[in-house]
Design goal:
Blueprint lengths: L2 H4 L5 E2 L7 H14 L7 H12 L9 E2 L2 E3 L7 E11 L9 E9 L5 H13 L3 H8 L4 H9 L1
Parallel strand pairs: 1-4, 2-5, 3-5
Antiparallel strand pairs: 4-5
Length: about 150
């Protein structure tokens, strides 16, 4: 399944209210719970934070892709958040992260997880796309941007 098909208004939060890394993770996971994509938040938080302890998923150009494999999902699941001010996510370039793609995949499914990471890498190469996304003011705008 293509990433664009997974990004719906109910899994997008604009703007994020959290001001620190663990808060952003919790906020994105709560979005998934509210959208009935997961039943329990704590095992997912634990899986994401365990992955983060091995090395930050804060990339460059204001992008972070916290991700983990966990038994709480049966298929690739995504949440998207935007923090216009940015937060310290220990990114590779040392700059604040503004755009967050939280990915969850079942432990026995590597393919969709890898494909989604690849798709995110491709999408985020476009400076114009990223600028527009950072300036989005609603989940509907983010979804429309991905559908174009």
């Amino acid at each position: 399944m293509a990433l664009v098909e997974l990004i719906t208004e109910d899994v997008v939060k604009v703007p994020l209210v959290s001001l620190e890394k663990s808060g952003v993770v919790r906020e994105l996971i709560q979005i998934l719970k509210d959208a009935n994509k997961i039943q329990e938040t704590q095992p997912v938080i634990d899986a994401i934070m365990e992955r983060e302890s091995k090395g930050s998923t804060g990339l460059e150009k204001g992008i972070a892709v916290p991700h983990a494999k966990c038994t709480q999902v049966k298929a690739l699941t995504v949440a998207v958040g935007i923090s216009p001010e940015g937060i310290d996510f220990q990114a590779l370039d040392g700059k604040p992260s503004q755009i967050f793609f939280l990915l969850l995949a079942p432990p026995d499914q590597s393919g969709p997880h890898i494909a989604a990471l690849s798709e995110i890498a491709k999408i985020t190469r476009s400076d114009a796309f990223m600028r527009t996304m950072k300036n989005s003011i609603s989940p509907a705008e983010v979804v429309e941007l991905f559908r174009e």
